[in-house]
Amino acid sequence: MERIPVLRMGSLLLITIQVDMHDKLALQLQDDVTERISDWGSTGVLIDISSLEIVDSFIGRMLANIAGMSRVLGAETVVVGMQPAVAITLVELGMSLTGVRTALSVEAGMELLYGNAFTGSEDEQRTEA
Amino acid sequence: MNDLAEIISQNQDRLRTEWIRTMSSSVERADLISKAELDEQCGSILKAMVEGVKSSGAENIAGGGWNTARDLLNSISTSRARQGFSPTDVATFVLSLKQPLFAVIRDKMGKTPDSLFEVIWSSTQLLDRLALITTESYMATREELIMRQQQELMELSTPVVKLWDGILALPIIGTLDSARTQVVMESLLQAVVSTNSRYAIIDITGVPTVDTLVAQHLLKTITAARLMGAECIISGVRPQIAQTIVHLGINLEDVITKAKLSDAFGLALQRSGRAVVKTSTAAAANPLSGLFSKREE
Amino acid sequence: MSSVLKREVLPVKTSNDVVIARQKVRQLAVELRFSLVDQTKLVTAASELARNALDHGKGGTMTVETLVNGARSGLKMIFEDQGPGIASIEDALKDGYTTGSGMGLGLGGSKRLVNDFSIESEVGKGTRITAVRWK
After folding, report:
1. Which CATH architecture has domain C3-134?
2. Residue A90 maps to which CATH number?
3. Which CATH class is domain B161-274?
């Protein structure tokens, strides 16, 4: 059966959700992530939801579950790329996704996890402290 | 009611000509529409009226047989509204058919007063209803136009300013109502994504009052931004507003607030790991040689 | 009184049906030219309610109708099932209420995503939830 691919980048797991998920697919993803963390000793999980146009309570719970389970296994999770319409709807729905850290982009997410992704800016010169 | 249908159907040309003549003497904006166009519109309506009376009768203009007539009247009314005709002009368009129609009916049925009365009565009712359709349509078009202009006005009055790489400011001027706050929320969140800004400063110096509803909307915006991975700081909180917030029992525990926009900017810079440093080559204003020049060392 | 322009009935019997229901609501919302945020709210509400009919109601149907009321247009969704029904509608509307496992948000969340919302339910007979969003 089709699965959402879980990619490995060193100690980071990268997951990009691009399809309109049905429940079984979501549950399969939860299983796959926990298994991979165990297999590869990953310390970070980055879930890119920038293609998701809908996040309902089921998907929200899935994200919270993945974050919770990963933490128990020693890995931190960041969800990135949430679309504005999705954020507005989640707030209205009453979902706060506590326990799930978020970032605006994959780079920001990596910086959050490993604190070393420097996104240069044209406004300033960086000086090492 | 086939009498009416036949009368109209067999006298279309006469009715159309007389109708246009009656209209021209009462409608003000004759310059806005060409004679050929008017001719065509009246002809189509007469045909549609025949169809309507034949299939659904003269009473039930909501019926399927009247669809063509209703559509025609709605589109004529909408285009008149856009062209700048007054509502009276549009209703008069339909009502000026009465005189020619009654004249024709009297010619055909003048010998039978009872039937004459019946047909005149149902045709006057029919034309009144058709005129009301055009008025409703006209109103709907104007309302749509006003709403669109309001929307554009709202969008123009909520600019999003990039203060620095990754730091946005949203100065809000004027009262925040439900609809406006929605627009503000959406513009802010969209800007956060498109400029990849982790910090958004919502400045409410220009907002006269904050009530529970507005506060709720602001809190929703902040929560949504947080869900996306951005932080909001509220600045420009005036003493009166601070008092109102406390009196209303609004919980702003999770929200960072600053009195001044500059403080909020400073905080955002600090949080994003930046410091502002003073260098020794500050420029001095020299009125004699241009606006600014380097100070000679 | 609103008139119905279009009506379609879809089954909600499998988790794949929930996906199809979402896509149908999205399609109609786009046709009616709802804003992106309103589309998202409608589709999310559909997903919540469809899943509710499936998980708690043991499967049922979703009826979608395109409505016209004067100059306004709207989208109506009706979810019906012959499941166990809801004992306390008041409780079901509270956030955090769930009879299953997980942090179910209850129907109160869906209610906030639409303009008109109503629940009819009888224990042992079934449930019918109607949700409408106007443009």
Report:
1. 2-Layer Sandwich (3.30)
2. 3.30.750.24
3. alpha beta
Which one of B183, B228, B232, B279 would you mutate to disrupt binding with A, by most A Cβ within 10 Å of its Cβ? B228
pLDDT digits (tens, 9 = 90+) for B85-117: 888 888 888 898 999 999 998 888 888 888 888
A80 domain-assigned: yes
Confirm whether pTM is higher than 0.90. Answer: no
**Cβ–Cβ of A61/C103 closer than 8 Å?**
yes
Give the residue carrying structure tokens 């009502």.
B95
Q: Which CATH superfamily is domain B2-152 in?
A: Globins (1.10.490.10)
Interchain pair A84, B274: CB under 8 A:
no
Distance CA C75, CA B50 (A): 35
Give me the residues of chain C with pLDDT under 70, please. Answer: 1, 95-106
For residue A39, being part of any structural domain is answered with yes
pLDDT of residue B263: 94
**Is residue A127 in some structural domain?**
no
- Residue B31's pLDDT is 66
What pLDDT does residue A89 have?
95
Q: Distance of CA B141 to CAs B165, B195, C72, C124, Å? A: 44, 37, 12, 49
Q: Which residue of B has its CA nearest to C36?
A: B186
Taking only Cα atoms into account, the Rg of chain B, rounded to an integer number of angstroms, comes to 33
Contact A108 B224 (CB under 8 A): no
**Nearest C-alpha of chain B: how many angstroms from C37?**
8
Residue B26 pLDDT: 64
Q: Splitting chain B (297 residues) into consecutive groups of 10 residues, what average pLDDT does each group show? A: 79 88 70 78 88 84 85 87 83 90 88 87 91 89 84 75 94 79 88 95 87 83 94 91 84 86 94 85 59 51
Residues of chain B with CATH 3.30.750.24: 161-274
Say what the ipTM of the complex is.
0.87
The pLDDT averaged over each successive group of 10 residues in chain A (129 residues) is 88 92 89 95 95 92 94 95 96 87 94 66 47
φ, ψ (nearest 5 deg) of residue A53:
-90, -15
Contacts of residues A40-43 at CB distance under 8 Å and 24 or more positions apart, as own/partner, are A40/A8, A40/A11, A40/A13, A41/A11, A42/A8, A42/A11, A42/A12, A42/A13, A42/A75, A43/A11, A43/A12, A43/A74, A43/A75, A43/A76, A43/A113
Chain C residues with a Cβ under 8 Å from any Cβ in chain A: 15-16, 18-19, 22-23, 26, 36-37, 39-41, 43-44, 47-48, 51, 95, 102-105, 108-110, 112-113
> Where does CATH 1.10.490.10 sit in chain B?
2-152
* Domain ranges for chain C: 3-134
